[in-house]
Structures are given as C-alpha cells and as structure tokens.
Design a protein that fits this description.
about 150 residues; 2 domains; about 70% helix
Amino acid sequence: MMKLRPLALTVAACASLTALVGCSSSSAPSDDTSAASSAPETSAAAAGGDFCTAYADAGGTLATPSNFQVGLPADETISDLSGRVAVMDAVTPPSEIESAWQSARGLYAEGVEIAEAVPDKSSPVLDSRIFAIVKELSGPTGDIRAYLDATC
C-alpha cells in the first residue's frame, strides 16, 4: 500500500507539470527566447505524457512491472498476473522499452497459464517454472520501472 502513495503523488506531480508546461507554452508568445526553450520541453513532456497517461488510465502503477509473490493460491496468482497482462495489453509501450514490455507480458501470461493448470485453485502454484519466471522477470521489469520512474 505504501508504494501506491508515492506513485499517486508522482502521477499528480506529472499531471501538474504537464498542465504547467502546456500553460507556459501558450502564454507569452511574443518572447522568442522563452518560446524556443519551451518547445523541446513541451514535446518531450507530450511524448512521455501520452504513454504515462495511458498507462495510468489502464491502471498501471510502478508496482505493475515487478516480480510477483509465489506460493499464493492459484486463483490469487491468476488474478494478479491477469491484471498485469490486461494493463500491458491496454497500452502501447514506447520503443525504448518495447522489448522489455513484450518479455514481461509474455512471462506474466505464462504464469497465468501455469496457475490455470492447477486443479484446485485454492492450492498454491508450485510448478518449478513459476520460480524461474520470477527470476527471468528481473531484467525486463527493471528496465520498465526505470523508464516509468524517469519518464512518468
């Protein structure tokens, strides 16, 4: 829960900054120096802002691209990982993280398939592949989180 509060503050700060950048670029058009310095900043904010906004609107948080807890009942694992896949499917990632995005999404989807194969959904997912998936997620999810932290 504590991770969501800093993220909410970050999203609010980004939204405020985007609004301020938008306001500053439309005001004072007669000052060529400020217009020239604002233009690159505005386009950079818009590029990250579109993705960041879509990601937040889809329910994505800084915790979405991360490892998941193993040993949970299959139904909880299915719910957790299906939610992550849904967020990732709802947003087109920027080219900087597209490969990591697809890798993480594929690993989450594989985790869902493994959990769905557990006959008793109240039993934990103990397939050895699920533990390997958690290890494999470290690289791509780290890249995605770094991008989100720096851009959003």
